[in-house]
């Protein structure tokens, strides 16, 4: 199903030939309706915020009835939850792609991890994404629902990355879930600190990146002459 997107990542399967499966008209229509609703909702939520984005305006842009929205998502909040989860999933995929690209060049797992961190931070330069992920999502969904989405997406992916780095002896054997919360929290904080003035964005990204790198290097499990420090 095609999803709404703020930024686009390349498909790793673009050169693979796929043979079409037997089509299910009802499922296909439902998927198309959801894609249209999420695309329209992304526009309205990012441009106007959750409160000012009306169900009528979203449905008019998606060219579907309000009944279709309520059928698939329950209410406007349910649609919003689907949109921000897709955004978080896109960040995870973009970070994973950056990691894989660096690792494919023969670099270390640490370099791959830093590349994934840089990708997420760079995405934070998008003011609409910052608004949706850092301001509206916690306020609209509340800590429980937003926390569940983060566990399924960004937080879960961060925990897996940390566990992999621990297996390589790069990070100390702290609790991986706690360390993931700390690192992702710092990364979100760095994104939140980015300036709204586009003219200052490059400098802001550079400074935020230095801060994040300093913190991450402080968490490394250092070795001196082959002996654990």
Automatic annotation (TrEMBL):
This is TetR/AcrR family transcriptional regulator. Residues 54-73 bind DNA. Keywords: DNA-binding, Transcription, Transcription regulation. It comes from the Bacteria. InterPro entries: Homeodomain-like_sf (IPR009057), HTH-type_TetR-like_transc_reg (IPR050109), HTH_TetR (IPR001647), Rv0078-like_C (IPR049484). GO terms for molecular function: DNA-binding transcription factor activity; transcription cis-regulatory region binding. Residues 31-91 form the HTH tetR-type domain.
């Amino acid at each position: 199903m095609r999803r709404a997107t703020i930024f686009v990542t390349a498909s790793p399967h673009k050169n693979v030939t796929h043979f079409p499966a037997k089509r299910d008209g009802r499922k296909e229509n439902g998927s198309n309706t959801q894609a249209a609703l999420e695309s329209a909702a992304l526009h309205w939520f990012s441009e106007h915020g959750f409160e000012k984005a009306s169900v009528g305006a979203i449905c008019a842009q998606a060219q579907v009835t309000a009944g279709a929205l309520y059928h698939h998502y329950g209410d406007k909040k349910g649609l919003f939850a689907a949109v921000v989860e897709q955004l978080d999933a896109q960040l995870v995929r973009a970070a994973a792609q950056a990691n894989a690209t660096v690792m494919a060049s023969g670099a270390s797992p640490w370099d791959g991890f830093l590349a994934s961190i840089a990708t997420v931070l760079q995405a934070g330069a998008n003011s609409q994404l910052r608004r949706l992920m850092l301001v509206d999502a916690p306020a609209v969904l509340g800590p429980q629902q937003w926390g569940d989405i983060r566990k399924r997406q960004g937080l879960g992916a961060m925990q897996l990355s940390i566990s992999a780095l621990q297996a390589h002896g790069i990070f100390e054997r702290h609790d991986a879930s706690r360390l993931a919360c700390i690192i992702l929290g710092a990364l979100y904080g760095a994104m939140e600190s980015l300036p709204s003035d586009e003219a200052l964005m490059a400098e802001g990204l550079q400074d935020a990146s230095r801060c994040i790198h300093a913190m991450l290097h402080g968490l490394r499990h250092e070795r001196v002459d082959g002996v654990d420090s």
